[in-house]
Amino acid sequence: MLKVLKFGGTSVGTLERIQNVANIIKDIKDDGHDVIAVVSAMSGETNKLLEYADHFSSNPASPEIDMLLSSGERVTSALLSIALNDQGYLTTSMSGREAGITTSDAHTKARIENIDVTNMRNAISDGKVVIVAGFQGVTSNGRVSTLGRGGSDLTAVAIAGAIKADLCEIYTDVDGIYTTDPRIEPKAKKLDMISYDEMLELASLGAKVLQTRSVEMAKKLNVNLVSRSSFSPETPGTLITKEENIMEKPVVSGIALDRNQVRVGLYSVKDKPGIAASIFTGLADANVNVDMIIQTVGVDGVTDLDFTVPKTELDTTKKVMAHFVNDAKKIDYNEEISKVSIVGVGMKSHAGIASKAFQALADENINIRIISTSEIKISMIILEKYSELAVRALHEAYNLDK
Prior knowledge:
The chain has 402 residues and is α/β, with parallel strands linked by helices. The chain has a domain at 2-173: 3-Layer(aba) Sandwich (Carbamate kinase). The protein has eleven helices and 20 strands. The strands form five sheets. Strands 3-6-2-1-9-11-12-10 form an eight-stranded mixed beta sheet, sandwiched between helices. Strand 7 (136-138) and strand 8 (144-146) form a beta hairpin. It is globular and about 80 Å long.
């Protein structure tokens, strides 16, 4: 079996942890499997390099930032290779270039365009463990490029897809995907498996175990993905796979909580064609990610419009909304909210899922401000002070502790 393993910054954060990763790889190799390991920079290393750059310039050129940051992953890959080699294992460390990863020209946020797996395949044929510096590649004209946030996960999944690996295992500091955040609900249970679509919803709704980009690519390339812990490698993780591979589809798989939300309210907006288009075009042009939108039916020539944006984009949102102060009687911003969501592929074929959620919150006297639904998701905006209570109530309502 060919396994692609990815180790994040916390998993390789110290020399002792790099040795721990070497031990995990040794055990897998000793079981007769071929291994490609993709590594991140040691935790804190990227920030340190950015501080170095900031010493010289407040606006350094992005190609130089890529050259600088790519060194962090190369350090880890070389150290891990040295550690394994010293214990008698054949290894080779590879930069993104050596691993055959070609990207777009968008420095600091490049996209993988192609992977030539020849070097990696030859090394595996020679019995070597291949250790690839994640998060990076080269542009068509040979410049070093980096892939942006979650880039090492993306590297691992893309390599697994390109080389037709049997499994791609993402090692972090948590041992899988849970029905909800165990810090909020101690009864949360680890899932054995979950579909790509459910994982994408949970990741986009606030679950931070996996990046959405890597799950999207895993779905596109049909890569079986496993989320597991480098600190307890003996514990089975969670398999993220095609929906048809899941025998018993749970009605609800998980509850997600997103505290990074602001509700924007426009009251007595002139009810005429084009107003909503102007507002949301302005926000899109400013790269503001609008989430939930609700508009009331117009009465007496005016209507109310509510939508949510990430707290991190509030200042930009206010600048855009300043252009529309004459189109509404009042515009206000409520930062004291959060979004709680239930996700599950079983919703497609079961009635009464939404009513159970609404009743569970009503029983706790929690008022729902905005509701948004899709085929496998129901999201609700509530006051932030009730968010953890809401998560626990919903978790119990759908018997997720069972």
